[in-house]
Design a protein that fits this description.
single chain, 221 residues, alpha+beta, two-stranded antiparallel sheet, Helicase, Ruva Protein, domain 3, 10 helices, five-stranded mixed beta barrel, OB fold (Dihydrolipoamide Acetyltransferase, E2P), DNA polymerase, domain 1
């Protein structure tokens, strides 16, 4: 199993890149969001990968964080969701957006991905709603970038170059989830409140998210 690749971008397609790893070229399929974040041809990059194996097909799919890779695997486990649909969902929402949509039961956001109909979107929310709290709470370990502290040595000219950093998932939501769990809130309730807070306060830091989530969890009336 190929779990991670680090090398130089040799080619950029519409839905894939060719990464040269010391003379061996790997075609890695990526979402639009990941493709936009990758460096131009000739520069170093690293991706976590998942290998799809079929009788007549071997395909590598690439992700900038472990959290996104894990969401891909979860999405692929939903009936009616193939690799193309999973990459479309992640490309449209990103891993944080997928977690929020599922925690909120917002299947309309899932349906916004190209090629995903309402029935499939509802199935994604229904089948994965129990996974959202754990995914939102993965924290820095699950959100770690594939490019962390990586260097690539070019076999041809001996040049050692640092790999450009790509953005990791939002750790503030994971920290807020952890804080609410420590306060005794149920994972599903905490996930929903944090997702609502994150949607209302885009880009908020952990303390703001916690305060807003607690406000939403407070008894009404």
């Amino acid at each position: 199993m190929i779990g991670r690749l680090a090398g130089r971008v040799e080619y950029r397609g519409s839905d894939h890149v060719l990464i040269d790893v010391r003379g061996v070229g790997y075609v890695v399929h990526v979402s639009e969001r990941t493709l936009a974040a990758l460096p131009p041809v000739g520069q170093a990059a690293a991706l976590y990968t998942d290998l799809l194996v079929r009788e007549d097909l071997l395909q590598l799919f690439g992700f900038p964080t472990l959290a996104e890779k894990e969401w891909h695997r979860l999405l692929m486990g939903v009936q009616g969701i193939g690799a193309k649909a999973s990459m479309a969902i992640l490309g449209t929402l990103g891993p944080d957006g997928v977690a929020r949509a599922i925690a909120l039961g917002d299947w309309a956001s899932i349906k916004a991905a190209p090629g995903v109909g309402p029935k499939i979107a509802q199935r994604v929310v229904n089948e994965l709603k129990g996974k959202a709290p754990a995914m939102m709470g993965m924290g820095a370990g699950g959100a770690a970038s594939a490019n962390t502290s990586e260097v690539i040595e070019d076999a041809g000219d001996g040049v050692v170059a640092p790999v450009p950093q790509m953005p990791a998932s939002n750790g503030a939501e994971a920290e807020a989830m952890s804080a609410l769990s420590n306060l005794g809130y149920a994972p599903a309730d905490a996930a929903r409140a944090v997702a609502e807070a994150a949607r209302a306060l885009d880009g908020a830091e952990t303390p703001q998210l916690i305060r807003e989530a607690l406000r939403r969890l407070a008894p009404k009336g």
